[in-house]
Design brief:
41% helix, 6-stranded mixed beta sheet, 5-stranded mixed beta sheet, 15 helices, Alpha-Beta Plaits, 411 residues, alpha/beta, Molybdenum Cofactor Biosythetic Enzyme, Chain A, 3 domains
Length: 411
């Protein structure tokens, strides 16, 4: 079944907010075998809404709309849908009763005219009350197609999808779709594509490969669609086996996850604690580690040792070694890691020292030179990298490399 998503709101088009609704909805729909073929963002304009909806209805079996359902004058989606479907707004006692209950539970005193207007709904639509807000969900059916309008507030949309998706599954027979994800480190996207070209070209027609690059990492996704006479899971497993043989240890995860979540799970599983000593990354590694819920179980704290005096006085780095080797050097990174390990009494410490840029580089140590060390009670490992000349990317790539090294040490 083909699905199109339309998000409505001038605030999206002017960049005031980011459309996260489409991504959330697409993930849920794909997991259930619905194929999202297009997402479109448009403004609060009646003609634009009707034209976009007409085009989507011609292409797709299901059209999901979010936004423009509030009680204020700029929220025109509900009336526009009435015009589009040739129906009218009618007062719903059931929706009004739900609104009263919702406002009372939310400790909002008094039903004003704007709130009451939410009880007017399209006469020809099936209505689903909104447990997270005041705007109801409207479900239209015409010529075998389904059009659903939902609130644009992400928490309300998410609740609406919990009601809409089961009803879509009852209405349509979705095809089987299997996704297998891989997280790959150590290859730029173009280099990875060249390495995988022979294998990718030999993939069966019903299995597609997608590259999802980010700074320092590439996600690969194998997607297989229902094909007569083919056991999809077996076919995907066989291609995954071939991919493992090609990439080996460059594959650091085989699911759709983040590197920091992988580290979190490993630290919790092995009951280990970690600390950071960061110079060029400026606390970014600590931010990543603590971005995962429950990180207090393994992260004790960190030191941002930007100045050499902090490296020396807090982490115990030798001033002579800084003088001899430079602040950006493997000996200094190693001492930073060992110093943090002792200072915060953790099982593991990770340290970075580098030249993020855009200035500060030399012929011997150009911008993008980064030294990373990971220390445990058993010893320390360290590596030097040369990334590039873009400051933000250098900080991100350094953080990713540090987490990959951390993962190696954890085992």
């Amino acid at each position: 079944m083909k699905v199109e998503i339309i998000t409505i709101g001038d605030e999206i088009l002017i960049g005031q907010i980011v459309d996260t609704n489409s991504a959330y909805m697409a993930q849920l729909l794909n997991a259930e075998g619905f194929s999202v073929v297009r997402t479109t963002s448009i403004g609060d304009n009646a003609d634009e809404i009707k034209n976009t909806l007409a085009e989507a209805e011609n292409r797709a079996d299901i059209v999901l709309i979010t936004g423009g359902l509030g009680p204020t004058k700029d929220d025109i989606t509900k009336q526009t849908l009435c015009d589009y479907f040739g129906t009218k707004l009618v007062f719903s006692e059931a929706v009004f009763a739900h609104l009263e209950k919702y406002l009372d539970k939310a400790n909002i005193v008094g039903m004003n005219d704007l709130n009451k207007s939410q009880a007017y709904v399209p006469e020809s639509a099936y209505i689903i009350n909104n447990e997270r807000g005041t705007a109801p969900i409207t479900w239209f059916e015409r010529n075998g197609k389904v059009i659903v309008s939902m609130p644009g507030v992400p928490s309300e949309m998410e609740w609406a999808m919990s009601q809409v998706l089961p009803k879509l599954k009852q209405t349509f027979s979705a095809e089987e779709i299997i996704h297998q994800n891989f997280l790959v480190y150590g290859y730029p996207e173009s280099t990875l594509a060249i390495k995988l070209a022979e294998w990718e070209n030999a993939l069966p027609s019903y299995i597609k490969l997608a590259y999802l690059p980010s700074v320092g990492l590439v996600k690969l996704r194998l997607s297989a669609k229902q094909t007569e006479g083919v056991v999809l899971k077996k076919a995907v497993n066989e291609e995954a086996r071939k991919l493992r043989n090609i990439l080996g240890k460059a594959i650091i995860a085989e699911k759709d996850t983040s590197l920091e979540t992988i580290i979190s799970n490993l630290l919790k599983e092995k009951k280990l604690t970690v600390t950071t000593a960061e110079s060029c990354t400026g606390g970014n590694i600590a931010r990543l580690l603590t971005s995962v819920a429950g990180s207090s179980a393994y992260f004790k704290g960190g030191v941002v040792a930007y100045d050499n005096a902090v490296k020396e006085n807090i982490l115990g780095v030798s001033a002579d070694d800084i003088e001899e080797y430079g602040a950006v050097s493997l000996p200094v990174a190693e001492q930073m890691a060992k110093g943090a390990l002792a200072l915060l009494e953790t099982d593991i410490a990770v340290a970075t020292s580098g030249i993020a840029g855009p200035g500060g580089g030399t012929d011997e140590k150009p911008v993008g030179t980064v030294c990373i060390a990971v220390a445990t009670q058993e010893g320390v490992i360290s590596r030097q990298f040369l990334f590039g000349n873009q400051r933000d990317r250098n900080i991100t790539r350094s953080s990713v490399a540090a987490l990959v090294m951390l993962k190696e040490v954890i085992g």
